[in-house]
Amino acid sequence: MIRPFLVMSTRSCRSYAEKVVQELNNIPEHLLFSAGFDYTDKLSVLSFADGEIEVVLHQSVRGKTVFLFSNSARNSENLSVEACKLELYHTIDVLKRSKAAEIIVFEPYISCSRSDRTTRRNSVGLWIHYKTLISLGVDHLVTYQLHSDKSKTMFDPCISSIDDVQTLSLLQRYLCDTTVISLENLLTTVRESWLFCSVDAGGEKLARKFAESFGTQLVIAHKQRSTTQVNTIECINLLSAVPLEGKELWIVDDMIDTGGSIYELVRELSKQSGKPVNIMIVHPVFSDPAVQRIKELKKESFLGRLIVCDTINTQEISEKLHFLEVIHSAEQSAKIVLGISQNQQMADLIDVFSPETYLESKKKQNI
What we know:
14 strands, Rossmann fold, single chain, 23% strand, 367 residues, 7-stranded mixed β-sheet, alpha/beta, 2 domains
């Protein structure tokens, strides 16, 4: 049974939410949805002269489950991080006051996810964001690829649950469709000549999953960060069981911010392999000077392909980086919305992806 639900969005994530609605309408089960579940245009923002805002709801949500899409990173409305968060908090408040039965916030990328260290004498951005959400009445939080597994330990499932959806299947399927192509190529060329590399020790788990799935060796990069300057790398050490010369190298990570780590790592890997290095990431944050650094790597032939997901709006970046490849996640998000509304386990929604099984099934279909 599908619980009646509505899809809504703050301004920063409206274009993404509209794509999710389109994907929901393409699912056979859409015939069972309640009429008029698309509420992406039912909110507006009043801005006052003193800088304060109010969010206005233009239709009843009483007794309904609301999937509220929001994003505090780069967006088509050019709203700042602070403005996006403030609008999100106001929107949750108006939904709660309007007697929504359940509020599920879907943030494809949580911009404060890296601010999760509780042992230093600093504020913790992710904790503040979470506490604000639950104090306003959010019942459930859904996101893609949190920066660290330890971040989930601060979420209390007795108050508000979280689904941190991994994007491995999206990324790996894209590689199979666009690059690996055939089972024969996977079993010979890929496993003999490809290497997956982490950006740092913290990203080893993600890179290792790629290496295990495709049956390749793993390269681990350890970066020494500056203790006095933010986003500054002092040195990078590489750990590999095989020589890098002549290998097809793939760096995989959850995000690129300023590109400092990637910039130095790509140069070092390319020098040792003698070939351009490919990058595949989930969240294209691309704070300055990331675009300039990436352009420089491409111009000097250190960089091969750059593949990202659309958890953050990529329109502006794509205009600057014409070689950028974007993996669309709206279909996956639609399946998550449908699965939650049917009370399915999240594990059933995001199957473990096997490149070998996937390519073998494609081969059989072509026979």
